[in-house]
adenine phosphoribosyltransferase (Danio rerio), 200 residues
Amino acid sequence: MDVLAVPPKREEGWYLSLMAPNTKGPKFAWLDPSRLYCNSQALSDCVKDLLKPFQNETIDLVAGIDAMGFILGSAVATTLGKGFLAIRKAGHLCVETHTQDYSDYSGREKVMEVRVDVLKPGLRVLLVDQWIETGGTMRAAIKLVENQGATVVGIAAVAIENSEGGKWLKENYKYSHCIPKELQSQIDSQYMEFFKNFSV
Ligand SMILES: O=P(O)(O)OC[C@H]1O[C@H](OP(=O)(O)OP(=O)(O)O)[C@H](O)[C@@H]1O
Ligand SMILES: Nc1ncnc2[nH]cnc12
């Protein structure tokens, strides 16, 4: 599919087939959703889908996780008319931060951080990331928000895999993702049928 094309009828999750499969091997995530952000209709439909379950919620601030969560998170924030807070991989912020250790799908030990001067008790935060695989990254971000007394209204990502950590997040937080029910098993087996026909 032409990356900028918009189909005449936009079925649920139509834009997911714009995602590109991993061609570089096991050190990398198994697919790259970022290609769908190149299509403005796809990005806007994706953001709308992510916001649907939160229509009746009060959200004061959107927080996005470094790095790809910044793109989706800021699109969500702009659509909502709210501000955006960057939760960063450690080592970049030149201001005082709180830090949180975690590990993710790569199995590596990592640290993320957030500035200390924004989150406070009573603030209602929607957390956005590109993808949830083991859930380690999202769980660390939740801790950073909650440890400062702010409330996590919910979590949003293009996909939430039904890993142990993904299921835990879904059981404990309000959530949204973009995967139609009939495609969730492909997400969980980390192989999408459209990969067969994928061409650049
Ligand atoms: O559920 P988990 O197993 O913790 O993995 C999810 C995280 O991994 C990916 O980011 P990645 O660290 O690959 O970095 P990027 O956003 O900089 O591409 C993804 O966007 C999440 O942030
Ligand atoms: N972008 C991504 N695609 C697939 N699996 C992932 N795991 C973490 N990030 C991922």
User: Anything to note?
Assistant: Residues 57-93+100-197 form a domain with the Rossmann fold fold (CATH 3.40.50.2020). The pocket of adenine (ligand 2) is lined by residues 29-31, 33, 105, 130-131, 133 (CB under 6 Å). The first strand starts at residue 20 and ends at 21. The chain has a mean pLDDT of 97.
